[in-house]
Amino acid sequence: MSTSEQKPDVGCLKVSSKSSPASVAGAIAGMVKDGVSVEIQAVGAGAVNQAVKAIAISRGFLSPIGIEIACVPSFADIVIDGEYRTAIRFTVDPRYTRGVAQPLGDDAHRPVPEIR
User: Fold this and answer.
1) In the chain, how long is the greatest CA-to-CA distance?
2) Most buried among 10, 27, 60, 86, using CB within 10 Å?
């Protein structure tokens, strides 16, 4: 087994208080669909707020195609401009994939009902 097969790819997204939650959500959804583990890093209350909104929005993007996600928060000590700061890091991984039929043709505009 090669090194890349042993350790999954990880994409780190740095979110600020000015980040667009919808844009970050699109990045999260795209990476999860590609099988990449996503880490989101935020420093400060405003950045954490935007990150949490992005995770919720990305769930809305992924759920209709059968992908549910799990989010695990943790602390990370980082250095910004020579100062030590504490960041909140969210690890987002697919929890499970449901077998949901994808709409085709004229049905493509209709939302797929969620099965719980």
Assistant:
1) 56
2) 27
Residue 79 CB partners (closer than 8 Å, separation 6+) = 85
Among 12-26, 70-84, 102-116, which is the least confidently predicted range?
Answer: 102-116
pTM, entire model: 0.75
Q: Which residue has the tokens 């505009």?
A: 109
Structure-token pair, residue 18: 């000015």
For domain 10-94, which CATH number applies: 3.30.70.100, 3.30.110.20, 3.40.50.620, 3.30.450.180? 3.30.110.20
Q: At what angle do helices 21-33 and 45-62 cross, to 10 degrees?
A: 50
